[in-house]
Write a structure and sequence with these properties.
Chain lengths: 198, 198
DNA sequence: GATCGAATCAAACGGATGTTTCAAACGATT
DNA sequence: AATCGTTTGAAACATCCGTTTGATTCGATC
């Protein structure tokens, strides 16, 4: 769908049905015929993007028993799904936009993607921190790790301005996943040693 | 400025000059008279919000020599500036919006706020990690810490849906700052021990 | 090849938005 | 009190958008 790129670039309101249809080589009225209205097209784009964005990180880290290794695999898969420009990169942009400016579509996204992610990553973090860790600490650590990854989707324009020379090849994306995992594992190690003080 | 609230809630394009002017009790044409056009009003709002958002975290953590304590103070001040609803909370929303959908205003924001933040926090992180840490490690750690805090501004709608019962009082905001600092200090401690391996 | 539903197309409609216009009110200065 | 630059006010303007309409083409089925 070329509509996804336009929605991701311009936002829902700024995207015009005219631009989308001409860019897609279709007629203006085709949108309303096939999707009812503009909002219907938007929902279809989000659903399509969710499937086209590749496997969920939770699936890629499914069979790994060692939680520390699982975290590394999970972080790499997450960033791959978000950043790899061989996949429809507009999907993560659309998600970032939904978070800053929620519509009804956000509830669907939370149910389909975000909550599953949170539970899977929370389980990994809980396994690393050990049974003595409080649920609150697990939740906070899960959030800290998530934020480091989502940051790449939310603040990419800022990063491009701060560090214009940065590389975004598939290889360096993998390394970023390793870096997030390393930072987080370092934190979890210390926190585990100190115990569930929070 | 009531215009800031509207811009933060609806976004630039979705905000209508009519709604802003009626909500502000002013006439429709007043906007174009005082600010030239809608975009001029937007820039004025951003500049005004920057000043009204209170002191920069870098200033609040200026006189502290112990870098670990400086990090704690800095994190608390940062989240206070972002989350405290007694201050114009629309400023952080506007920033989040600019990052997802950059306009010319983002360059100004990077120069005025983001890069100073990055340099100050980077200095604190560098002091904690010690002179043996590579610049790359310092940069990554600074980014990880920043992301944990910015997450609250970017993903707040998601957090509200994931954990509806969460509290956002000034006191709990302070504690969130402590939590971010604790997680980050734990990571920095481990990384310092391992050395600049990255 | 005739038929009928689905899909496409150009054109137009109704509404909303940013901007302009021009007259009226204001306020300091003389 | 008269004057003149500044600010407000209501109304209109020009444009663009999402949607609808009705005619036309397409494609499978009999």
């Amino acid at each position: 769908m070329t509509a996804g790129e336009v929605f991701a670039r311009r936002g829902f309101r700024d995207s015009t049905v005219r631009e989308i249809s001409t860019l897609a080589g279709a007629n203006l009225a085709a949108v309303n015929y096939h999707f009812g209205d503009k909002k219907g097209l938007y929902h279809a784009v989000i659903a399509c993007g969710h499937e086209a964005a590749g496997p969920m990180p939770a699936d890629e880290a499914a069979g790994i028993s060692d939680p520390r290794e699982a975290l590394r695999v999970y972080c790499r898969a997450f960033l791959r799904r978000i950043l790899d420009h061989r996949k429809p990169e507009w999907h993560s942009k659309l998600m970032a936009r939904e978070m800053a400016e929620p519509t009804e579509a956000l509830d669907e996204m939370v149910k389909m993607m975000i909550r599953p992610h949170w539970e899977r990553l929370g389980a990994i973090v809980g396994a690393i921190l050990g049974p003595s860790a409080s649920p609150r600490l697990v939740r906070l650590a899960t959030q800290s790790i998530t934020s480091q990854m989502v940051f790449y989707a939310h603040a990419r324009p800022v990063l491009d301005r701060l560090f214009p020379a940065e590389e975004w090849s598939p290889a360096s994306i993998e390394r970023r996943g390793e870096d997030v995992a390393a930072f987080s594992l370092a934190a979890l190690d210390s926190l585990r040693r100190v115990g569930g003080k929070a």
